[in-house]
Write a structure and sequence with these properties.
heterodimer; A: alpha/beta; Rossmann fold; B: Alpha-Beta Plaits; 7-stranded parallel sheet; 5-stranded parallel sheet; 25% strand; globular; binds flavin-adenine dinucleotide; binds adenosine monophosphate
């Protein structure tokens, strides 16, 4: 069983602040981490390997420094790591990212591909399903439980708005996973040693058979026009007075609109 | 627009209207205006007796603009994917029809809906809620959601009807299969939009969405590809108007050629009562870290009871273990829009605000006058909730004669 886990290095959004003057993200000093959902994806792959054997490759598309996240994944137990990095890939939106990932995956070959449900920087949740389409294989999103894996099929629970579906698919398949699936393990000492020594395979434009016009900024149908701080409706009316008076005023307002 | 009318010179003679082969000139306030259907044929330039119609682009820019125009000329209408669950139309579909109708009217085009796995009766409902035409695949195998079959059908519909805009709900269904469609038709898709507008200058769709965990909003464009596709966050857009006597067309579509590589074995329902209630309640009384513990939440429950409302919570209160996750409102919890949202001891972090700021009225009770929650509040009370809330409960009881 060949398993590929797509991971993304993201800024820890819990630490992100907005510069109130420029309305831009202050990314300085914000640590880079493996996208949290991708940790669940790695864990899922490790559990399948423990059960039925196989090889796990982690794949990321990003700048050279994204290598750090690949080493972290090896520390958790992944066998191999591939960094997809090239100037031609810069500025990709989800369409171009998925296209590029799919081209690399075609070269690497896989029975199961795991992605996180979404990346916490863009929150789009689109790269997984789009990659599956480019690979012309089925996908199942929001996996909360893997019930059974065999050599040529898989049965999983897919989280839905009002419960879950039990879904079956043949292999190869791409799965995107949610937090409820598992508890990602911490790297072992042995894993950390392996991570230090591991050779990271780097792939660029020359290593994949891709259409130049479908890559990077040029290949991206969407454009970010501008970013801004969430606007708040400012119709606030402060109710002054003693607690008694405040409550009385509020009740008057509620009565006026016939809410009580 | 590369061809424009100099309004100072235009006398409103309407000569140009007839001359336009694309019906792209309309009268507005007694003057001629050129809309986005203009093909830049330049016929009107020579027709205008006043020389009031002028070209604004240089040759290269004009050629580029023409090329895109030609590509887009066939793409006109707005199309929404109407989600159903077990044969019943999902609420988000009505919201999409509301948003879709507004966009279609602005562009003066038709509104299509695509409905899979249910019948003519439901299709008729979509028309009453604002659709002009409903493309219906009533095949019962489509009642259950599979990415493959849904993606194939929507792709076929897009290729046949060439909409300019395609909208679906940002639900587990829409967010899972729309990306496949976008990949197939080679166009952009914007996830989880909270606002959609037409740029009056270019006719492009301005798609606004939160990113970085709600810390920032981004406006996304898809200027060079069609259709422009977006998933739309549930409970943000207003439903359209329901008109009992509205008529439209139902187009039945066959599904012979659909192949599906995944299979749903079973559907298990697991809805907590609170989730349902939070979505339907007129009053939500929400508590945060300031509520201090389970005892504080008892107080909120009492208030909720006299108002006939439901208790919500911030993530901080959920993380403390004072209430269960199903109560959580915000980025990683639920999006709600009750008539009245009473926030008690909640500071108002963006991740909380994105889940409740479309409530009709927000009442904030917080002892810190600088708490950001007051920025979204209709009424703000600076005070100790342990004093205010019981008093409020008592006085509402009196007012209601309970
Ligand atoms: C990726 C991400 C996702 C998140 N998702 C969510 C989400 O879905 N929902 C959510 O809510 N949060 C979410 N958060 C967390 C959010 O950033 C805040 O940490 C959280 O909302 C704070 O909750 P709080 O307002 O209850 O607590 P605090 O910020 O601690 O505020 C407590 C408030 O209570 C007031 N107070 C204290 N005592 C009293 C009293 N006696 N009377 C009146 N007022 C009093 C204080 O003045 C203060 O303003 C998310 C964060 C991240 C990074
Ligand atoms: N640049 C990337 N490299 C590798 N995997 C990615 C990349 N971007 C996104 N992914 C994968 O796609 C998932 C969804 O990301 P997104 O669509 O950006 O929200 C992530 O959890 C990753 O598994």
């Amino acid at each position: 069983m060949n398993i590929i886990v797509c991971i993304k290095q993201v800024p820890d959004t819990a630490e992100i602040k907005i510069n109130p003057e420029t309305n831009t993200l202050m990314r300085e000093g914000v640590p880079s981490i493996i996208n949290p959902f991708d940790l669940n994806a790695i864990e899922a792959a490790l559990q399948i390997r423990e059960q039925s054997g196989g090889k796990i490759s982690v794949l990321t598309m990003g700048p050279p420094q994204a290598e750090a996240s690949l080493r972290d994944a090896i520390a958790m137990g992944a066998d191999e790591a591939v960094l997809l990095s090239d100037k031609a890939f810069a500025g990709s939106d989800t369409w171009a990212t998925s296209y590029t990932l799919a081209k690399a995956i075609e070269k690497l070959g896989a029975d199961i591909i795991f992605c996180g449900k979404q990346a916490i920087d863009g929150d789009t949740a689109q790269v997984g399903p789009e990659t599956a389409e480019f690979l012309n294989i089925p996908h199942i999103s929001y996996i909360r439980k893997i019930e059974e894996v065999s050599d040529n099929s898989i049965r999983v629970q897919r989280l839905m708005d009002e419960g879950y579906d039990i879904v079956e698919s043949g292999l190869p398949v791409l799965l995107t996973v949610v937090k409820e699936l598992n508890e990602p393990r911490m790297p072992s000492l042995k894993g950390k040693m392996a991570a230090k020594k591991a050779e990271i395979k780097v792939m660029g434009f020359a290593d994949i058979e891709a259409d130049e016009n479908s890559l990077g900024l040029k290949g991206s149908p969407t454009q970010v026009k501008n970013i801004f701080a969430p606007e708040l409706k400012a119709e606030r009316k402060m109710i002054e007075g003693s607690p008694e008076e405040q409550v009385d005023s509020l009740i008057r307002e509620l009565k006026a609109i016939k809410c009580i | 627009m590369p061809v424009v009318v100099n309004l100072d010179k235009c006398t409103g003679c309407e000569t140009c209207l007839e001359s336009c082969p694309y019906d792209a000139i309309v009268m507005k306030d007694g003057k001629a205006v050129i809309n986005e259907y203009c093909n830049e044929c330049m016929t009107c330039l020579s027709v205008c007796p006043e020389g009031a119609i002028i070209e604004t682009l240089d040759a290269a820019a004009r050629e580029e603009s023409l090329r895109t125009k030609a590509k887009f000329a066939d793409y006109r209408d707005v199309l929404v994917f109407a989600e159903q669950r077990e044969g019943e139309i999902a609420a988000v579909s009505y919201e999409l029809l509301g948003a879709g109708r507004r966009l279609a009217d602005k562009r003066d085009v038709g509104l299509y809906a695509v409905l899979l796995g249910t019948g003519e009766k439901e299709a008729g409902e979509l028309i009453k809620w604002g659709a002009d035409k409903v493309i219906l695949c009533s095949d019962s195998s489509l009642t259950q959601f599979n990415d493959d079959s849904y993606a194939q059908i929507l792709t076929e519909v897009i290729q046949k009807y060439k909409p300019s805009i395609v909208l679906a709900g940002a639900t587990p269904v829409g967010r899972s299969f729309l990306p496949r469609v976008a990949a197939k038709v080679r166009t952009g898709l914007t996830a989880d939009c909270t606002s959609l507008e037409i740029d009056s200058e270019t006719g492009n769709l301005l798609q606004v969405r939160p990113a970085f965990g709600g810390n920032i909003m981004a406006t996304i464009l898809c200027p060079d590809y069609r259709p422009q596709m977006a998933t739309v966050r549930p409970r943000v857009m207003k439903k359209g108007e329901y008109q009992e006597d509205r008529t439209g067309e139902i187009i039945n579509m066959s599904t012979d050629s659909i192949s599906c590589r995944t299979q749903v074995i079973e559907t298990v329902k697991e809805v907590s009562e609170i989730s349902v209630n939070l979505h339907e309640a007129e009053f939500i009384i929400a508590g945060g870290r300031g509520v201090g513990g389970e005892k504080g939440f008892k107080m909120l429950e009492e208030l909720a009871e006299v108002l006939g409302g439901v208790v919500g919570a911030s993530r901080a209160a959920v993380d403390e273990g004072w209430v269960s996750y199903s109560h959580q409102v915000g980025q990683t919890g639920k999006t709600v829009n009750p008539k009245i949202y009473i926030a008690c001891g909640i500071s108002g972090a963006v991740q909380h605000l994105v889940g409740m700021q479309s409530s009709d009225m927000i009442i904030a009770i917080n002892k810190n006058p600088d708490a950001p929650i007051f920025n979204v509040a209709t009424y703000g009370i600076v005070g100790d909730m342990f004093e205010i809330v019981p008093l409020l409960t008592k006085k509402i009881k009196e007012a209601k004669g309970l």
